[in-house]
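Field reference: sequence -> structure
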Amino acid sequence: MHRRTFIKSSLALAGVSLIGTGCSSTANQVLISAARDSSGNDSIRLTDPYKGQCTVIPVSQRLHDVSLRPGSNEVVVFERRPGYQLYVINFQSAQITRA
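Structure field:
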């Protein structure tokens, strides 16, 4: 196989693999992060890049990481070390379901 044929085939396969993975403007994706603003206020931010919306959920401590709960519309956001606090958030409704 020639190098150019290989590159063309690889690009075609990469394009086919992207079908249905959120490349359309109607995709239902939310970016979730723990944040601290310039005033020192901590929050959880849910951003929809397709709608240009950002929901800010204020919290009382600095957070570290976000993890998706498999098979649900929820994520778990963890407090920084040595923390014991976590938040369960429904990312569809942008509400804390358990703290």
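Note: The chain has one helix and seven strands.
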